[in-house]
Design a protein that fits this description.
Elements: H1 9-28, H2 30-56, H3 63-85, H4 87-115, H5 118-140, H6 142-172
Helix pairs in contact: 1-2, 1-6, 2-3, 2-4, 2-6, 3-4, 4-5, 5-6
């Protein structure tokens, strides 16, 4: 990669260092990190709503779809605004979104396991059950789940950042990483 010109070695070191710092900050201040994540979730919901509202004015999709898109957009903007006004609401929304993602993924894996054969069937069924259990945990014990989410995010940033720094310095040496 060093000779390929895809990116200079120092950019990987800089990104890795930044990732480690973000991870350390997330681990040192999990409550603040959760508030930032909640705020970002609120912003995302508002933007999603605005995009649906704008999408309602795209012609050729049928009046029913346009009206539905507009209504969903307005509801999302209102929910997002409520989340931004009250971060506790946003944290709850974040927990529900994460829970639903795990639950729906788990259900999809479990359904796919029905058509699979042998070890694949077993693996898909286990993944489905584990995902459903994680989703239910996020749904019914959001405080613990979100804390674990922040800790895992922080640890993930630290681990990947450290690896990026190592690889960046390896790319710096002639003959390595090519």
């Amino acid at each position: 990669m060093r000779d390929s010109g895809l990116f200079p070695w120092w950019s990987l070191v800089a990104l890795g260092t930044l990732s480690v710092l973000v991870g350390v900050v997330a681990l040192a201040w999990p409550d603040a990190t959760l508030r930032v994540l909640a705020w970002l979730a609120g912003v995302w919901v508002v933007i999603s709503g605005l995009m649906r509202i704008f999408g309602a004015f795209v012609t050729g999709r049928g009046v029913g779809r346009q009206v539905l898109s507009g209504i969903v957009g307005v509801v999302l903007v209102l929910i997002g605004a409520a989340c931004l006004r009250d971060l506790v609401t946003s944290v709850a929304l974040l927990s529900v979104v994460v829970a639903m993602t795990w639950l729906l993924s788990g259900i999809a894996e479990a359904v796919m396991s029905v058509d699979a054969k042998g070890r694949t069937r077993t693996a898909l069924a286990v993944i489905g059950v584990v995902s459903i259990l994680i989703g239910l945990t996020f749904l019914f014990v959001p405080e613990l789940s979100l804390f674990v989410l922040v800790v895992m995010t922080g640890l993930g940033f630290v681990a990947t950042g450290a690896l990026q720094v190592v690889v960046g310095f390896q790319l710096r040496r002639p003959g390595d990483g090519t």
